[in-house]
């Protein structure tokens, strides 16, 4: 018989009271609201872009401490990872593998569902959303599989499928094609590793020399943009890249993608484009390029992302740059806002920080 330990009435959580107006506050511990819910005690959560008005954060690995009456796949004490949004597993979109558009989906860190930078987290639709942490897998590595690694993998996957929709080869067999990754932050680095499993040649570019150096460690030919332009022209007889993978999320990045891609090539974008886009119709018409946008269906791409992680274990073991406690949030969000830090994670106060 499993004995439930009492939960506290309140918990620490990072609240966004405005853009980067963040506060560490005492708030009520979440409760089971639906029979398909579980409550997680957070162990590791990811630092990410804040959404105003809510507990922030959309990446968490935690321990199941409460379960709803309908839960069948998990029990109290299980260590699990959560995707950035829940999914029911049975609606029109989930049946097709498009879990990102689940009819019942709720995303962390918004009006529907508070985020994960807190001591406790409510997970809706838990049976069809959560992933158990495999034996031998670190919690930090598993955290990457809740969002950024599947997202990056999906970007490379869609680029490959757009390039040749009849290509039925395994995605871990590189084809003779040139891919360019635009943006070498944490998601971009995951995309470089994913792209290397699908394309024979992978370039990457970013304004930051430090980020380009990280991309090179992941196996990309990492160059400043002007040098990349010249190199692509020389090595492809002026055609351009077969595939451009865009992870920045703004209009200039898309202009660059359309500039670098060859005619009848592919542009796959998973950058979050939150503002109106201004694209040149002539460039689109002249290039005959195929474009795809949108967020990742984590459950669909989890197996491929897991394979990339396992094939690059040493790289991803060193992926997390900063490990902090909740009360250190202000310093690290300031650095995050300035683009001066890599992947950063919060550890719960009672969970030992590796290497500390």
Automatic annotation (TrEMBL):
Q: Has the keyword Hydrolase been applied to this entry? A: no
Which cofactors is this protein said to need? Zn(2+)
Matches recorded under Pfam families: ADH_N (PF08240), ADH_zinc_N (PF00107)
User: What Gene Ontology molecular-function terms does this entry list?
Assistant: oxidoreductase activity; zinc ion binding
Report keywords, A-Z: Metal-binding, Oxidoreductase, Zinc
Highest rank taxon of the organism: Eukaryota
Q: Where is the Enoyl reductase (ER) domain?
A: 18-346
What family is it from? Belongs to the zinc-containing alcohol dehydrogenase family.
Q: What is this protein called?
A: Enoyl reductase (ER) domain-containing protein
Native species of this protein?
Answer: Trichosporon asahii var. asahii (strain CBS 8904) (Yeast)
